Structures
1.
Amino acid sequence: MAEALQHARRYLDIAWLWIRAAWAYPASFVMLAIGNAMITSLDFVGLWIMFSHLDDLAGFSLAEVGFLYGASSLGLGIADTLIGSVERIGTYVRTGRLDQMLTKPVPLLVQVCADQFTLRRLGRITQALVVFGWAAAYVDWSPLRVLVTVSMVASGAAVFFGLFVGFSCIQFWTTDASEFANAFTYGGATITQYPLSIFPREVLVALTFVIPVAFVNWYPALFVLGRDDPFGMPGWFQFASPLAAVVTVAASLLVWRTGVRHYTSTGS
Amino acid sequence: MRTIGGSDLLYVAIATRAFRRYSTYQAATLAGIFTNSVFGIIGSFAYLALWRANANAGGYDSGDAVTYVWLGQALLMTVAVWGGGTTDDLAERIRTGDVAIDLYRPIGLVQWYLAGDLGRACYHLLTRGLAPTVVGAVLFDLKAPESPVALLGFVLAVPLAVVVSFGIRFLVASSAFWLLDQSGVKVMSGAFAIFFSGLMLPLVLFPGWLGTLAQALPWAAFIQVPADIWLGKRTGGDLVMALGFQVLWAVVLLGCCRLVLGAATRKVVVQGG
């Protein structure tokens, strides 16, 4: 426990360094924050325009889709802000920076995740919170639903953490394939901004058991919104997001360790 | 009449080198093709759900809509919708001051980077354009070009789309002359491009004045115009108008590039110089 706190302190130290560095170009920083918020806001405007041609999307209203969208965007936003830099691991391998990092008395994963930490990604979180807050007004709340919602957001962030770390490890083997991970991280976020009832059953099964992004929002949201599961999956799945999160994170840490063990410096 | 001279061959040489340079990163290309295909599949199911509920939204049928998704994925990297390409090299060279070397080359800066970017686009079209489209055609019912004329129009529209996109990206990169770092402007410009190019949602779905505005902005030339030509939504005189729209924006933007470059070289002291 004390060790984990120590790691968190180191993480914050490095993050603070990068926040100050970003201020070297203040105009860029401000525009980056606005631009990031704009990208995600226009994303939602896109959904809203879709709904101007529809009453519902595969049985879900705009407010319900807003709830799904907000939850998934929030999960991705938190994970991306905290550890999104892990995507750049291939660059560190190529430039030899990973060797420098390995010599420092801070765990490699902490260093890689905190490196180039940037607050500008807060733009996404802010926008997600606005949409989520708006959609939440349409929910019939109960204490249990609040609890499931909190666990949904935390688990969602953890699942995306796992996907970011796990799929970025491919770059230990092929340093320039960083985009491969995007299909799972940003792809996962794009999938979950729609009700999964637009997909065939086989896709849902894959999103439940292979890449478990269905637990980021779909299953818990079905409970919170009081909806019947259109696919008739087991009811307890709606409370299983924390389990999916633990499994994904554990798997990704295992892949990370394998990747680091496999790593041989570009100089050798 | 002008004949093909040494400078034309020079541009071809620049384009070929850019093509070869991008083709070095094979793992990146494969990863990108995979990602484009995943996003194509997601988009297809989303649009199928939309057009199942509203069979004639925006004047498209569901076949048009799914084809549109894959055309969008094919053009995404080719046109460099959210930035990138040789203009990123320019921005970096402005930041480091190396642009000074570019400026005393006996060839215009705009032409130099445009030739390189067309080479890059060619590589991306043949790999990240073609391969996901094959995946899409296997998984979904895609429409072939409406007619031979439509195919010809599409073949003309794609390079024009790249030039329009280059014009915007060059201007964005030039902002580094004043701001030193293009990344803020680039992200903002990318946000507009994703929305107004029709990548996120076909512009034909945009309601009222927003639709009219979106169809008039240069970003419409990126995806919406080539896709509508492919789908046979613009034929005859309208097809000529569509290509004319792209040419007009290309000329206007390249003109702006020259003006901005002129202002930049007069006003800005190159770093380290």
2.
Amino acid sequence: MSLRFLDLARPSRQHWLGYLLLLPAVALVALIIVYPLFVSLDLSFQKIGMATLNAPRRPFTLENYGKLFTSPDFWNACWVTIKLVVVVSAACFAVGLGTALLVNNRFKGRTLARLFVALPWAVPEVIAVVIFAWIFDSSFGLMNWLFIKVGITSQMINWFSEPTAAFWVVAITMIWKGYPFVSIMTLAGLQSIPEDFYNAAKVDGASALQRFRYITIPVLMPVLGVTLVLVILWVFRDFSIIKVLTDGGPLKATQTLSIMTYDQAFGFFNMGYASAIGIVTLVLCVVASLLMLGRKSQAMY
Amino acid sequence: MKTIGKRIAASAVAAMLVGAALPTSAGAEVLKFVSWQKDEKGVGDWWASVIKEWEAKHPGDTIEWTKVERSAYADTMTTLFAGGTPPDIVHLASFEFQAFANNGWLEDLGPWVEKAGLDLNGWSGQDICKFQETTVCIMMLYYGTIFGYNEEILKQAGVAVPKTYAEFLAAAKATTKDLNGDGIVDQFGTGHETKGGGGQYIAEMASYLFDAGARFTNAEGEVTIDTPEMVEGLTRWKTIVKENLTPRDLSAGEVRKLFADGKIALKVDGPWIYSIMQQGAAKDKLKLASVPFDPPLGGSSNVLAMPSEISDEKKQLVWDFIAIAASEKFQTSFATLAASTPPSPRADLTDAKAKIPHFDLMVESQKAAAEHKIDRIPIGFEVQFNEFSKMIQEEVQRMIIEDLDPATVAKTMHEKAEALQ
């Protein structure tokens, strides 16, 4: 009786097999993602410095969230994060879409051009940051040398000591590292557009701009929508580029929510407060993703 | 850059230590020792000799020594302690152990010191290990700074080796030059790290502050920032940075390399600068002298401690390790192997003085700094040092970026420091 009950070959039990096969993956996700998330959520409601897993739970408090929402540093970090998201996402899309359209055309050396477009994506983030740190070095960097030679400036620019300059160094590094992803995704989308669409439009007398406006963009919308969400989430959570280039400075000009979380947790040992920042960041990411996926991401045709 | 690598390394170390926390085969004990100094020439060799001695005295038992990069060290140690799997031998920087002690993670070593009869009188920097009336660590290095200069650059500029701050400033100005006329300065008067964290930033500007008579707090831990001496100290630092007498936005390692390669004329640094000088392109032109600041900057560097939650048997083994490291024999060998001033006043320095020509300079500097109780960690901010140093760094950066009056900045820092306490 019990063996028959467990017979997974029976049509009525076949879906059990699916669940059973999924179980290890679900357990793993629960262990390495869901459990830490709940620990973090729990810590965010405690006034705690250094957390210990086996320590007794501290009393429930909303103090961390109260401190967070009244902290100028938090709002500054939000503003820096939003600025970076807008600047980096917009530039990644402009460059990524442009390069994808370029290498989608047939011309001599297209394969090589595609390779160069995708190259920054293949370069590890660590190496990319080192390269840009050298380029923008305030004392011996290539960029200062170039600016002085060309006559843009007569004095060395302290790229990492000036708030505006530091922000743009971070943004440019992220754009260089991030645009190939948009380019690759868009190129894949472009290659899936049937040639018939363009031929029909040409017959109807549509210009190149019109074909781009009324065929390419609408058909690409599902790809662009998903890509936009992924790029936004990448900028939101990226840590290593900022940490290594500026460490959030100077004067918190590049301090994003992820850098603030790290500083509070491992710099100042305020685990409860850091968890609260992490939870708010998660909520913001979820809201942004829902808003982006819910709109404008459906194909027109 | 190295962050991903560091995280992987940190996770690997954590995983190894968690695994090692499982019971080992009967009898043999394995002590876990994590340190950032493992591969450092000199001091790393000294640690290896301490381990060898301990293993010789405990046949069958071993010490598993793992390296974690300094920049990932606080994260790794926090994770290990938080997860309940701390290393058995706790090696921490002197500016970070307070947070661990404050959480009750470090054993009170007072009874162990007493039982072993370890004489800590005159032990440089040991006062810093007193935390809430308990001895939570043993100071492993309290150093005085030494002064390196490029003889050729000074000769070309026609300036003598500086002996005071005024002479130092004049020499730094005279040696900061655009040598090839391309509009870019390629030889600097002095060199400081201005890119790193708050603690390093304070260490970089501390010589100018202390020489001006400024202190962040007094002996009672009361904030003493808003003073004419601090205003003078800040003015000096602002001059050095604002007038580009130091390269900007470089790490400490990069600045030392520039000095070793002959791109910087004057450099005040810890004892480790000597070995870096020896590897540089300009090594024949580099000389050492007394620091032109009074008192010289000194500082506690790193400590040994014991976790409070390990078994009594393991505590005894860890204490044996600490006792070997603190013994006269190994304090003496520390001087020669690490080419640095040992904290013990009873170490025999004869051999070190014979082998290391500038050793007397280091000893004098260490003594002068210790007599003035100089340390980059102000009394009263031991636990919140990271927050305090970050605040100081930001306000000083603001002074330089927005060209603020040092008197206004001192007042702001004073108020913010009081709010932190």
